[in-house]
Amino acid sequence: MVRNIELENTRLDDAARAGWLYYIAGNTQDEIARKLGVSRQTAQRLVSLSISAKLIKVRLDHPIANCLQLSERLKEAFKIDFCEVVPSDPESDSVSHGVAQAAAAELERYLVSQHPVIVAMGTGRMLRAMADQLTPMDCPQHKIVSLVGNIASDGSASLYDVVSRVADVVKAPHYPMPLPVIATTVQDKALLLGQKPVRNVVELAKQADVNFVGVGTIGDDAALVRDGFVKPEEMRALVKAGAAGEIVGWAYDDKGQLIDGLTNDRVVSVPLDQPAKRRVIGVAMATSRLRAVRGALAGKLINGIITNETMAGLLLT
């Protein structure tokens, strides 16, 4: 009997993985057969089983054993209370497959509440991908608030603003922060933060029930540089100071400690609590962000993470 149960669980694991590869990662049945090491006919049956067993809806609805184990190990290793690990497609170069869907599903768990909820959000490519996966709904009882400005030094708006996109999809009031991520001078920062509308947004963000943030890299190709928020020479200074990553513009080192001075003196974003006082979920999967994610977890800047098998394995190495 025990043996039969184990075989059935393994079969469902394989079906869930095949379903994910087909419906979410966009693989053909031939590709699935090759990746799982089975015949094409078996791959076809596994994909069919993922539907008949109701493992697949739009998102993966079966906790693949390895993902569940990795999630528990990450929670124990970094003393966090929330972790979701989704399957990895080793041959995909997507920077959001699976993780964006999982993050959207987690956000929707808050949005379906009839009680008012405040959701605070960072910005970036991964969170924008998450926003694109949301199910349209009407949520006038909730508030969507920004943790970070979305204006570059030249006055242009970020292409990856998230708050307005989420609010548009779920029909909720939103509170953007029409400011630069990093002010030109310390004096400018004080003037910007002194404005009453900005103070109101910051205070609202501090009351958030949940925060969703991207985890950014440090270096010449960092999003802060590409999007015009930080000059190359400022980024080089952060690298020299030992910066490992950034969250909503705040740079920190490998231990998750905020860098003294430099651009951190001029960041206009909502300050990061250390340790995080409320649920702060980092959403990341690109292996280039490994150092940044590990630092954020080590410093308790985030107390939850949504990632994939590959990143989870590297974090535990």
Series of secondary-structure elements, N-terminal to C-terminal: HHHHEHEHEHEHHEHHEEEHEH
In CATH terms, what is the fold-level topology of the largest domain? Rossmann fold
Count the strands?
9
Strand order of the largest sheet: 1-9-8-5-2-3-4
Which ranges are low-confidence, i.e. pLDDT below 50, for 5 or more consecutive residues? none
Judged by helices, strands and strand pairing, the structural class is: alpha/beta
Largest sheet: 7 strands, parallel
Radius of gyration: 21 Å
CATH class of the largest domain: Alpha Beta
The helix content, as a percent range, equals 40-55%
Please report the number of helical segments.
13
Oligomer: single chain
- Head-to-tail CA distance between termini: 36 Å
Mean pLDDT: 88
| Overall structural domain count | 2
Strand content: 5-15%
Architecture of the largest domain in CATH?
Answer: 3-Layer(aba) Sandwich
Basic shape: globular
Quick structural overview:
The chain is 42% helix and 11% strand.
Draw up the topology in text:
Blueprint: H1 2-23, H2 29-36, H3 40-52, H4 65-78, E1 82-86, H5 99-111, E2 118-121, H6 125-132, E3 143-146, H7 163-170, E4 174-175, H8 186-193, H9 196-206, E5 210-214, H10 223-226, H11 232-240, E6 245-247, E7 250-252, E8 279-283, H12 290-298, E9 304-308, H13 309-315
Parallel strand pairs: 1-9, 2-3, 2-5, 3-4, 5-8, 8-9
Antiparallel strand pairs: 6-7
Helix pairs in contact: 1-3, 2-3, 4-13, 5-6
